[in-house]
């Protein structure tokens, strides 16, 4: 699980006359899949997400997340600007019966027009093994490939992060190699796996139970 990356801000506004393929910049749809609602991040998600990332079990595989709810709110505002600029999309994972996010998926472009992108994800420990991530991820992947136009989606995970590596494998990701000492945490340099999912290999059957709320 590696997410919450905040790089240089190159965002620019999206025109109302932008091509249909770029309309995702203006808003994130609601995606429903079994026990999870996938939506855009909201400012009211900040306290719950900040507390989640502060736990050792979650935070040990993350780039340093915002340290306070106020800074997390700033991060959420920043991700909205990034989406408007066509550089990034963040999705909140909201369990059934809950109002605020219990996880998030962050996707940032690596190549112009989002042809190649990188994603990271994080889910609160109480929801590990519940299907929250897998169901939400299938809906997100279908949206990225079918609507945003992603051709290649990459992920980088710490080699010892068995839960994240197992989830990616179940989603059909292919491990392409090891990035030696690709992640630094607590003064240690850790190896990472490089995973990829290609649009032409993504099976629609993986998202049979996902549908968009209009």
* Integer average pLDDT: 85
Which sequence of SSEs, written as H and E, runs from N to C? EEHHHEEEHEHEEE
| Structural class by helix and strand composition | alpha+beta
**Unreliable spans:** 6-18, 206-214
Task: Say which CATH homologous superfamily is assigned.
Answer: Gcn5-related N-acetyltransferase (GNAT)
Main beta sheet strand tally, sense and closure: 9 strands, mixed
Percent of residues in helices: 25-40%
Radius of gyration: 16 Å
Overview of the molecule:
There is one protein chain. The chain is of the alpha+beta class and 214 residues long. The protein has a single domain (20-202), classed as Gcn5-related N-acetyltransferase (GNAT) (Aminopeptidase, 3-Layer(aba) Sandwich). Helix content is 26%, strand content 31%. It has 5 helices and 9 strands; from the N terminus they run ββαααβββαβαβββ. It has helices at residues 46-54, 56-59, 69-84, 132-148, 162-170, and strands at 30-33, 36-40, 88-95, 103-109, 116-123, 152-158, 174-185, 188-198, 210-213. Strands 7-8-6-5-4-3-2-1-9 form a 9-stranded mixed beta sheet, sandwiched between helices. The radius of gyration is 16 Å and the shape is globular. Residues 6-18 and 206-214 have low confidence and may be disordered.
